[in-house]
């Protein structure tokens, strides 16, 4: 049954037209620099959906549009615009009152919400995310913007008072850093891009936005919203290859903060390009190989339910996904049997079909890469435990439960970023603990068990290895008010609604001696609203 479903997963053109309609190709030619929407006339890159259309015995990816392959010239133009808008901190945007910057961001959010249907549709067609998760990504992003506004209001309220210490009057607020380069990931091309872009903007920075290689077209419906919501040069949008666009930006030395979510290899390349890296504020979300540890007394049904969601939501294409599972040898057979049954119950299909969990993969070479990982493990003694595991049909890869995995296999170390689930049996708790200690990554871990004493003994050392320990639940980013970061090679900087505001700003202080002349000057500035920084205004 499973093999038959995999073989027939892709629809015919007639079936697509009947169920959701074919998307009209979006030939993206507009880009935003210095408040002007320009028309691109140069070379372009075609965009193909992970969704394939079946035609007799052939299946081909659907072409859904194209986008500009911009050059160094446009990159420098965008940089010049952002630098001019910041104007060494003297520009309209960085000196604007916080309450006014908030209004601009809220205006953008309102315009953005008008495009929900189109953006959700493009998320489905561009990266293969199912409709439920695509809608969740959009709605969560809108909520994040609202939460960011509320967090900034709270931060500003705390800062809207004077402090007198040792005969010095001072007011401490947060000030912007300068020009920010924002580069998000393809798996959350809207949400994770905006969780850096929005706080960077609202704190008074100007920005250059370069979307990921998959998830480009979904920005198209929002370009006008960016143009009309922000002053010229505050937001500039570039399309094209990062290898062509980012080197001239970084080598200029005029990028003040880098918000990048991707691989450590790419991050290293970016950082090395900057002539003064010590002056660059970096906020990086990088790789992770998050393990789950299932103890002998764990609730098996709960453990399997959480590990299924943790390892296979969006086909495992999440940095927070559970990517390796350690199961106590006394229960590993039962755990695997339950896991196999759970995989069988997961619906496969196209992103727009309700209830579908497993969908095609956006990266063209990903099925081949995953197949290579599985074959390597099989050569070294592992087996694919579930029927159909690892079967490929075009852009679709059916989840493979691989057991037993050992340290000789690529799956032991490499972040698969896809639907392959490696399981390792263990007898002593030191085995998974040692794995975490020796790993290059340190984002999260999930531990499943019932014994409070044993769990407490694991939590205390694990919080010094990873940034989040999840007890009897999957690894995850949210809620967005919680800090999101990682140790080792997994992250630089911390993101949450409030942490992001701090990440894209610096504490600045206005100080004066506590004497009558200075008190008179400060009182006049505050009373007459002469300064947006030196102010006791209270944002409600």
* Rg result: 25 Å
On the 0-100 scale, what is the average pLDDT? 96
Low-confidence stretches: none
CATH level 1 name of the largest domain? Alpha Beta
Largest sheet: 7 strands, mixed
Please list the strands of the largest sheet in the order they lie side by side: 15-18-19-14-13-21-22
Shape: globular
What's the N-to-C terminus distance? 59 Å
CATH superfamily of the largest domain: Aldehyde Dehydrogenase, Chain A, domain 1
Q: Any idea what the CATH architecture of the largest domain is?
A: 3-Layer(aba) Sandwich
What is the helix fraction of residues, given as a range? 25-40%
The number of distinct β-strands equals 25
**Overall domain count:** 2
User: Helix tally?
Assistant: 19
List key phrases describing it:
540 residues, alpha/beta, Aldehyde Dehydrogenase, Chain A, domain 1, Aldehyde Dehydrogenase, Chain A, domain 2, 2 domains, 7-stranded mixed sheet, 6-stranded mixed sheet, 22% strand, globular
Q: What does the model show?
A:
With 540 residues, the chain is an alpha/beta fold. The strands form seven sheets. A seven-stranded mixed beta sheet has the order 15-18-19-14-13-21-22, with helices on both faces. It has a six-stranded mixed beta sheet with strand order 10-9-8-11-12-24, with helices on both faces. The protein has a three-stranded mixed beta sheet with strand order 1-5-4. Helix 12 links the parallel strand 13 (290-294) and strand 14 (322-328). It folds into two domains: 26-43 and 64-285, 3-Layer(aba) Sandwich (Aldehyde Dehydrogenase, Chain A, domain 1); 290-479, Aldehyde Dehydrogenase, Chain A, domain 2, CATH 3.40.309.10.
């Amino acid at each position: 049954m499973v093999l038959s479903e995999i073989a027939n997963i892709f629809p015919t053109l007639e079936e697509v037209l009947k169920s959701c309609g074919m998307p009209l190709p979006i030939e993206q030619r507009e880009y935003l620099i210095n408040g002007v929407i320009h028309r691109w006339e140069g070379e372009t890159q075609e965009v193909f959906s992970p969704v394939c259309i079946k035609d007799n015995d052939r299946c081909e990816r659907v072409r859904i549009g194209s986008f500009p392959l911009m050059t160094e010239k446009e990159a420098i133009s965008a940089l010049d615009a952002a630098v001019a808008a910041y104007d060494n901190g003297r520009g309209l945007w960085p000196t604007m009152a916080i309450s006014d910057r908030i209004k601009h961001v809220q205006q953008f959010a309102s315009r953005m919400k008008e495009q929900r249907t189109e953006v959700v549709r493009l998320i489905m067609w561009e990266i293969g995310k199912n409709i439920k998760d695509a809608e969740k990504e959009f709605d969560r992003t809108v909520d994040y913007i609202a939460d960011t506004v509320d967090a900034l209001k709270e931060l500003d309220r705390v800062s809207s008072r004077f402090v007198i210490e040792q005969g010095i009057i001072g007011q401490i607020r947060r000030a912007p850093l300068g020009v920010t380069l924002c580069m998000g990931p393809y798996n959350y091309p809207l949400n994770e891009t905006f969780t850096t872009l929005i706080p960077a903007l609202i704190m008074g920075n100007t920005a250059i936005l370069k979307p990921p290689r998959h998830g480009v077209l979904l920005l198209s419906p929002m370009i006008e919203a960016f143009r009309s919501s922000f002053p010229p040069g505050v937001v500039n949008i570039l399309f094209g290859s990062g290898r062509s666009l980012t080197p001239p930006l970084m080598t200029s030395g005029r990028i003040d903060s880098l918000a990048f979510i991707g691989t450590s290899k790419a991050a290293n390349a970016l950082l090395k390009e900057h002539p003064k890296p010590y002056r660059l504020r970096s906020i990086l979300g990088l790789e992770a190989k998050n393990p789950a540890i299932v103890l002998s007394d764990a609730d098996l049904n709960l453990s399997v339910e959480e590990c299924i969601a943790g390892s296979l939501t969006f086909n495992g294409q999440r940095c927070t996904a559970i990517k390796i599972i350690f199961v106590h040898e006394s229960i590993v057979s039962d755990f695997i049997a339950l896991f196999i049954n759970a995989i069988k119950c997961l619906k496969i299909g196209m992103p727009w079909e309700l209830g579908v969990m497993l969908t095609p993969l956006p990266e063209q070479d990903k099925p081949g890469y995953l197949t290579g990982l599985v074959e390597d493990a099989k050569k070294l003694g592992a087996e694919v435990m579930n029927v159909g595991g690892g079967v490929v049909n075009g852009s679709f890869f059916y989840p493979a439960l691989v057991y037993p995995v050992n340290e000789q296999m690529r799956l032991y170390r490499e972040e698969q970023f896809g639907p392959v689930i490696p399981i390792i049996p263990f007898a002593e708790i030191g085995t998974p603990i040692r794995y975490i200690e020796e790993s290059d990554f340190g984002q999260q871990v999930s531990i499943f068990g019932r014994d409070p004493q044993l769990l407490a003994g694991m939590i205390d050392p694990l919080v010094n290895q990873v940034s989040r320990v999840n007890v009897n639940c999957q690894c995850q980013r949210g809620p967005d008010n919680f800090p999101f970061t990682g140790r080792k090679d997994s992250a630089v900087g911390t993101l949450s609604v409030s942490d992001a505001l701090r990440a894209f700003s610096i504490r600045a202080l206005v100080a004066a001696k506590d004497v009558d002349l200075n008190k008179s000057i400060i009182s006049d500035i505050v009373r007459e609203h002469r300064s947006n920084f030196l102010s006791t205004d209270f944002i409600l």
